[in-house]
Protein 1
Amino acid sequence: MATVKDACRHLRSKNAGPFWVTIDLFFKDYATFEKYAHSPALGADVFAKLYGTDASLVRHYPVPSLHMVKISYPRPRAQGGELERDMHCGQQYVRLLGIELD
């Protein structure tokens, strides 16, 4: 069974402003992008569970020309708050690495 780590050549997560996080999944090639870009394993419900956000607010933006998907979700707390553990959200993608796509 393929995981996100197997299917993607690069992943990154970053701030999308003080209230949002964005995760970019760059698939290995167009065929892999086509196969997994709309996988339920990358759906809003999965992001809601993994990141403690409201599934109705998760945004999914496929970019076929780059073989990538951009997924954005609201942060549970504003950037820089007292309980902040990853201010720039650079490590948020790690939770996705083992997600099975098939």
Protein 2
Amino acid sequence: MTAPHKFRTVDEQLTALRKGSAEVIREEELRAKLERSRTSGEPLRVKLGVDPTAPDLHLGHTVVLRKLKHFQDEGHTAIFLIGGFTALVGDPTGQSETRPPLTTEQVQANAKTYLDQVFKLLDPNKTEIRNNADWLDPLTNQEIVRLCAKYRVARLLEREDFRSRLQKQEPIAVHELLYPLYQAYDSVELKADVELGATEQKFNLLLGRDIQREYGQESQVALTMPILVGTEGQRKMSKSLGNYVGITESPTQMFGKLMSISDELMWSYYDLLTDFAPPVIVRLKEAVRTGVLHPKKVKTQLARTIVTEFHGENAAKKAADEFDQVYRKRQAPDEMKQYDFDLTGKVRLTRLMMKAGINSRTEAERLIRQGAVEIDGVLIRDPAHSLDITSPRTLTLRIGKKPPFQIRIREPERA
């Protein structure tokens, strides 16, 4: 028979679990649950549900995932719930229009990749993996009607996204109203003591508290985490906005993107993406403010910490060394991106820059005037600069603070 787990004191647990959180509803309930758990030796059941709507996760997704890890580190049961059913419905949270549902095949393919990624943070031997398709798929019509009868439409329409769409006379499909009820029923099925989610999930988490009471269970505690701001420092981290750091990206890519964030933004990243204790972060911030530490040194520590978590210490060190090589010593990285360009005779430098991703000729010319462009180590300041492309060769371009890349001039392919 397994001996009961010996938990840390309730105050010690609360200190760790509060870190970075936006809101705990209600904290006195969480304290009572932790005290009861410590007395009985029975861990709390902590639920995090994720709909596999895309194959890859980024650091924004890991904010709440890290909080699940904190509960796991305290000895509680981490339940990672894959929304195999709810992903087919489509979460309306934050949506300004009806989201087209995914196919079963898409959901299954995405779910398969999720587990490899989440186990970079969670202990696979101590994580309970569940799929809500296991109990939501078999629900009968009578059971769905009984679930719907436990909540009023007027309260569902209090959700900010629903209310906004009604005011704008934008459509709301019936299945969208069912989504938060299904998510709440997950908490009933799992007997969740705590449910985690981003701040935008607050309504759904609170609905789970209500539905659990309707089914005769004690209400779960709802713990929300802030939304992580993307690398540009303005909007929510998102792949579609291009301001993300993917957890499956190479160590070099991750490190470079993290070093690109502003000095101000790095404190939020320290808080939400590392296990540095709040007093340590306060001391680092004060050291930067007083000039004892340079912001770049503190940011380098942040980037190395995050890359180590996903790729290991050796990979993080190599990425840091390469970053230093490129940006401080102005040397080319060991591996550079390459772009192919067919022989065309005389070609404007701006065309080559656009080939490599610069949005427009105007933007390319502006960068050249600012002295932000080098070809093979030579600074170019003439926006009309042209190159004679008369034989196959490789050019190394550097634009601003981005890593250098290569343009391979090649013979055109024959038809």
Protein 3
Amino acid sequence: MSISKDLSLLSSSPETSKGRLIKESYSQTRSEFQRDRDRILHSAAFRRLKHKTQVFVSHEGDHYRTRLTHSLEVSQIARSICRVFNLDEDLADTLSISHDIGHPPFGHAGEDALSSSMKNYGGFDHNDQAIRIVHLLEKKYFNFDGLNLTWETLEGLVKHNGPIKENIPMTINELNNKFNLQLNKFPSLEAQISSIADDIAYNNHDLDDGLRAGFFTYDELANLPLIGDIIKSFPSEFESFEMQRINNEITRKSTAIMIKDVMNTIDEHVSKLSIKTANDVRLQNQLVADFSPVMKEKVSSIKSFLSSKMYNHDKVKSMTQNAHKIITSLFELFMNTDDKIYSKYLPDYENENHKSRMICDFVAGMTDNFAQTIYNKHIN
């Protein structure tokens, strides 16, 4: 691979940041993006990721990924790519470690359950919940609620999945009205790299976790594009090695190939689209940081395989149904219970009109363990 460009001119610079919604004095020792990263790192929401499952199998073994370990893997990939191009690693790191903090307990099952419970109360969206956390729910400063993050960090979090042109979630819409996040434009190159690093990380570590859980075999993986080529390059007796060695060889090589493809694609797009400034990145009608068309097909095949063999596995479906029951029951408990139980867990309850959203915030912030404990104590 030949990466020819220093893309520092496309980098988001903390020195030229659009600043914070609430003005603060500058730090003498840290850049504005470093301060954002540190605020996320020390937040309660980030700590809780340790006990939130990724694909809802983590409680069955010590080596399955959690939201926390996944976020750290995303950060490592994003920082590595940014370093090659001389982009701002701190911004990419901040976005990577914070992109999942809005997820409720029990993975996607928990989100589906909360979305259903909140359908008559404004709905639930994990991306919007992340903004609620960093903008409203963290209570650490005398002068403001939330973490008062920079415009660039908020923009990257809001647009983790790209521009938002319709069906704008409630909190994101309210924040955008105060701090124009240019929702119809693409985010910074660092934000795009964090997003594609997320894809690289979860596709590869889900293969590892799926193998550990016994959901599929090496023979089945050998039929996949990219993964199959890696396995076919192994010694004929490779299955005599420990699983952790084999899995690491697969995911290490696959991750490296995907990263190489993304870096080549960035290099190609910058040249082809004549991108000269950070603003040029936002004005494109496509992603700058992306997989190549050939790699997209390979990744799509891997995703389809994981959907069939892992996400829709009977064991995962059973856990998903249980998770849905727990979250739905907890929401109903707090909505319908007497004030004694309610006030024990939500002492700040003041306004009946806000009750459903406060309950949603509370349940969404739970770890898997805490949700299960409250369910067992008051419902089961």
